[in-house]
Specification:
- The chain is an alpha+beta fold.
- The chain has a domain of 107 residues: Glutathione S-transferase Yfyf (Class Pi), Chain A, domain 2.
- The protein is 53% helix and 7% strand.
- It contains 8 helices and 4 strands; from the N terminus they run E-H-E-H-E-E-H-H-H-H-H-H.
- Strands 2-1-3-4 form a 4-stranded mixed beta sheet, covered by helices on one side.
- Strand 3 and strand 4 form a beta hairpin.
- The chain is globular.
- The model has no long low-confidence stretch (mean pLDDT 94).
């Protein structure tokens, strides 16, 4: 297999890369990494010394690509799919796509991880002030995105996804478990519902569901009813 993806099914940024691979039906070999297992971590560190996933390895080109956004842009450039380009070649659409990708990563995804990580810190090592700042940032981002999503074609243009949607799905699905959406944000809620029902996203969720018991939050990510992982 030309491509190998080093990942874990529960890891939110791994979802971002997996959604892109599944959306374009790009052939790849999944390599599950268990960072809690010394042998698995050591093997992974030989591929990427920082031992942070996702990481894509292109055996034919002898290239290692880290970070989900870089992986998706690499796929566009060197393993283009038949269904979609994740970043448009049109200059105006291109910079907008990259901007909203960053918005979802920095103002939804990263503060969500801050809140979740705080749940598993040793006793007395929590950061309640930082967690409250993260909650505030997510709420502010929700309000911005609710205003934006109603005027855009995210998760519907041409029946395919873009880099924006690949970023939005894991960010919003996990963020909803720690900072529930305001019912007044109807457009954003409808967008999230579309994402959860989207086949490539539903597949990622179905594959992750057996691992949700390890997610340290009482509210688990929503899964589309009837969704099943691919065999």
């Amino acid at each position: 297999m030309t491509l190998k993806l080093y990942y874990h099914p529960l890891a939110s940024f791994c979802w971002k890369a997996l959604i892109a691979l599944y959306e374009n039906e790009t052939p790849f070999e999944p390599v599950l990494v268990d960072l809690a297992d010394a042998s698995s971590r050591e093997s992974f560190a030989k591929v990427w010394p920082l031992a942070k996933f996702p990481v894509l390895r292109d055996e034919v080109r002898g290239t290692t690509i880290a970070e989900a956004t870089a992986i998706i842009e690499y796929l566009d450039a060197f393993h283009p799919g038949r269904r979609t380009r994740f970043v448009s070649t049109d200059p105006d659409r291109s910079w907008q796509t990259r901007m909203w990708d960053r918005v979802f990563d920095h103002y939804i995804h990263e503060p969500m991880q801050k809140i979740v990580t705080d749940r598993i810190r040793p006793e007395g090592k929590g950061d309640p002030f930082g967690v409250e700042q993260a909650r505030t940032q997510i709420r502010e981002a929700y309000a911005l995105l609710d205003r934006e999503v109603g005027t855009r074609e995210w998760a519907r243009s041409g029946g395919t996804l873009s880099l924006i949607d690949c970023a939005a799905a894991p960010a919003l699905i996990y963020a909803e478990t720690v900072v529930p959406l305001d019912p007044a944000h109807r457009d954003l809620m409808a967008y999230l519902d579309r994402l959860i029902a989207w086949p490539s996203v539903a597949r990622v969720l179905a594959e992750a569901e057996p691992y949700f018991k390890f997610y340290p939050v009482e509210t688990k990510p929503r899964v589309r009813p009837g969704a099943r992982p691919s065999q």
